[in-house]
Amino acid sequence: MTNDSLLRALVRLARPHQWVKNGFVLVGLLFGHRWGDAALVGRVALSFVAFSLASSAVYVTNDILDREVDRRHPEKRKRPIASGLVRPGLAAVFGCILAAAALALAAKVSLTAVAIIACYAVINLVYSLGAKNVVILDVFIIAAGFMLRILAGTIGVGIEPSRWLLLCGLMVTLFLGFAKRRAEGLALADGAPQHRRTLEDYDPAFLDNMISVCAAGVLVTYSLYTVDPGTIALHRTDKLIYTVPFVLYGLFRYLFLLHRCGGAGDPSSDLLRDPHLAATAVGWLAMVVLLLF
């Protein structure tokens, strides 16, 4: 393999397309009404980059530990380690470099940011070493990773997080986690338990109930946030409620992709590939920025 091919394989191993998930780090800056503070914006940007590197280190670790299982998966067998493009030893060195760079950048933000990044790494290691095989707990650990992203962009840089937004973030991440399990079950069919042990316990009816509960939670918590007196006072507008239809349409579109199009297995890819989801996300963000500014 040439150096150029190896470099491309390492980039694929880091999964930069998944960095869109780290947009959760930016939520506090947007809804905390603090975008006018240039120094604060810089710290949030550093937190975003640090979390992106940390998440890539986690992906590398997962791929090393799961390489044998991934080789039996119709899509994951194409990953650099499972396919043999990158040796596990080299991947481990690469993962350590990514993790060290993430912690170094977090240290420039605050000690709290370092603690949050370290906590993220620990819970993902626990997940990879066995917690991923514990039904329901596996999805809650995934959700915890997203909540830590929100905390990195709020308390990690000195922004007080909205409790309604924290609740909404929890509901969103649980919704995505259970939808991912549902999509994996549909894609792998009878071979699902061999790839992921918890899929043996996640029958479709149970997952559909969990997804419905979380989707309702997203809608309720976000709607209550938009009409909360504290929100109206902070942003000096009571018009954020007009962004709720975007959230509702996004939820329904995601459920459609899950049940009719075989999607929802990778939220980042779905957001980038599906024009309806992409337009909804852009429309929601544009409406929020318009109303807040």
Describe the protein in words.
- The protein starts with a helix and ends with a helix.
- The chain has helices spanning 3-14, 27-31, 38-65, 67-70, 88-109, 111-128, 137-152, 163-188, 192-195, 204-227, 229-235, 244-260, 267-273, 275-292.
- The longest helix has 28 residues, at 38-65.
- It has 293 residues and is mainly alpha-helical.
- The model has no long low-confidence stretch (mean pLDDT 88).
- It is 71% helix and 0% strand.
- It contains 14 helices and no strands.
- The chain folds into two domains: 9-161, UbiA prenyltransferase (Tetracycline Repressor, domain 2, Orthogonal Bundle), CATH 1.10.357.140; 162-293.
- Helix 3 (38-65) runs antiparallel to helix 5 (88-109), helix 3 (38-65) packs parallel to helix 6 and helix 6 packs antiparallel against helix 7.
Number of domains: 2
CATH topology of the largest domain: Tetracycline Repressor, domain 2
How would you classify the helix and strand content by structural class?
mainly alpha
The beta-strand count equals: 0
CATH level 1 class label of the largest domain: Mainly Alpha
Radius of gyration (CA) equals: 19 Å
Overall pLDDT: 88
Beta-strand content? under 5%
Number of helices: 14
| Known CATH architecture of the largest domain | Orthogonal Bundle
The CATH superfamily of the largest domain is identified as: UbiA prenyltransferase
Order of helices and strands: HHHHHHHHHHHHHH
Shape from CA axes? globular
Helical content class: over 70%
Biggest beta sheet attributes: none
Distance between the termini: 51 Å
